[in-house]
Amino acid sequence: MKTIRNKLYICAVLVAVVCLCLSFATVTAGSATVANAETTESHDIYLIDPTAVATVGNYLYIADNVDGSQGVVMRFEIAANGQPTKDTTVLTTGKRIVGLSGSDIKITENDGTIGTLYVIYESEAVLYDVAADGSLSENTQTFTHITDATLGGKQLVDVCVGLHLGSPTVYLLFNDSLTVYITTGSIWRPAVPNLTNTKSLFFSSGYVYFIAADKCSRIECASGYLDTGYTANVTLTPTNGFSFTVEEGGATYPALYNKTDIEFLQGVGSDKANFATLNGNDDLTVLDIAAVTSTVFVLDSNKQVRVYVKTTTENFKRTDIHVGSDTVSQSFPTDQTKFTAYTLARSKGYPTNIVYRTTDTATSIAKVEDKFDGTFIVLDYDGSTSCPYYYVLIGNKFGWVKKSSAEATPGTDEKIAVISSKVNDTVSLKAKLSTLSNVYVYALPFGEADSFTYTQSANDMTEVDLLQTFKQTTDEGVVTWYYISFDDEGTTRKGFVKQDDLGHFSVDPKSTIGLEVEKSNLKINATLFEAVTVYATADMTQGAELYNANGIVKLYSGDRVFLVEKSEDGRAAMICILHKDNAVDYGWIDANRLINVNSITANTIAGLSFLGGAIILGILLLVVFKIKKKKST
Fold it and tell me: Where would I find the H helices in 318-397?
């Protein structure tokens, strides 16, 4: 009996050893990893978060805040009728801009300088010299850069360039006082202390005006002292003001305003006007105002800069001229077959993250997109290179995207990321039109686009070249489109078809085959009777199976392949296959089907399991046989 127990113990140990080996093989297989715009019309500009306007010489500057904390300053030339034209971005910062202050006074006498522009942030102000072409360069004098050290813990409210005893200098308005820089002594000197509710300050004709405690007072620049006998005689409660000249060579005087009203301190006609009345919009409010001779630029709550005029013979009135719109009025082909190229792209930030509406309301995007982060198709056409905007397709609607520079193309624009729309980045692919009889070929990749009907025979399916692929999101789901080229009785025709109209995908035999066929570093992991289907596209959908001369390309457990790339989500792997007849294919399979060359496949595991089971069974039978034999003796 003891001998029998020992033999059974030995059998149990053998079973445990075999199970452990099988377990190790299974774990090893399971843990194997898969190898790894310069010039545009002013109304064709959409302002996202504008905060200020200013004028220097014959230039209008607008501060807008885009992409969160990024601020930009745009410059416009002012035409004779007051129309702002030829916009360009002259400054881009990494901080939010809260104000601008322009002046024709030059702090530094440089050749070509026509004035200065202060760019104001929450607790900093930077002075720029304005060149004759309106471009900006930071002023080099230390005192003009307002920093925390200048503020001394006080809150910056406003800043302007003015005069002091005949010399150009800088005035600072704090939350409780007004300070001037004395250039002869290189010091900041308090000019007006003990202020409350400070709002703004500006220079006009020998005086620096400032608003505090709901009234407008002034400093006489010639003496440098507060004009104690002056308080602006206005009926409104002012929050800001500007200097205004009613006609060329005429007198210059101040004008004050608040969110709803404006009042000129001198001049002809009506001295006061209400913006809601002038615009027929009771909800309209004013954010900032700047002016040149007889022309006033008003930044309002509609994110527009409206142009108003006031002359010696006319009262203050609004014109139809404005900056800011959600619609671009550039011309584009109405014949959809005139588009010559299609580029899939995504914005990398302002200004290409704004998609404007087109003038065709039936085909335009419904509303302006001011922070668009999706993809769009840039449509090329005759004349598109000279247009300051890209004409784009989003789904089945059109829009405009402003170029980051006049000469930019999708491939060179630093604010555009081009996304590959090739069907396969390594080789060219072909397919056959699989729809019997009539096939609808579209001018653009959406179902409502212009189309023509191509008729083929069921016995002679037309082979096409696959040039590009795009996906369209609809209410019913995602539609995959292919841009194809094919021969139609000697004429090359191009257009878009749905994936459902294609089948029998194959690698173009003219494609260049890479050296990777000699470096097969992976193999297929599948069960004994399971074949792995190879697809022409990464989405591996039914109907996109890869074909060659032998039919649908399939792989089996242990077949050697080379990994070319993986899809973004890592689920699909593009592989190169060297067949036994030395033919080469490229296609996509489930990435989980790949294991390292030295790893154990599922078939091997199955074989080991079968072998282990057979060994155990053999041992058990041997033990039983010996036990029976001993009993019989």
Answer: none
DSSP bridge partners of 418: 345
The gap from C-alpha 101 to its chain's centroid, in whole angstroms, comes to 30
Q: Going edge to edge, which strands form the sheet with 355-356?
A: 355-356, 397-402, 389-394, 375-380, 341-347, 416-418
What values do phi and psi take at 21, rounded to 5? Answer: -60, -45
- Rounded (to 5) percent helix, strand, coil in the chain: 15, 45, 40
The Cα–Cα gap between 321 and 554 comes to 67
DSSP β-ladder status, 451-456 and 437-442: antiparallel
Beta bridge partners of 235: none
Q: Please say whether the beta carbons of 397 and 366 come within 8 A.
A: yes
**87-146: per-residue pLDDT in tens?**
899 999 999 999 999 999 999 888 889 999 999 999 999 999 999 999 999 999 999 999
Helix (H) or strand (E) holding 242: strand 240-245
CA distance 206 to 214: 22
> What DSSP designation does 327 have?
B
Q: How far is CA 3 from CA 9, 621, 632, in A?
A: 10, 17, 16
Q: Report yes or no: 498 and 507 within 8 Å, Cβ to Cβ.
A: no
Q: What is the pTM of this model?
A: 0.76
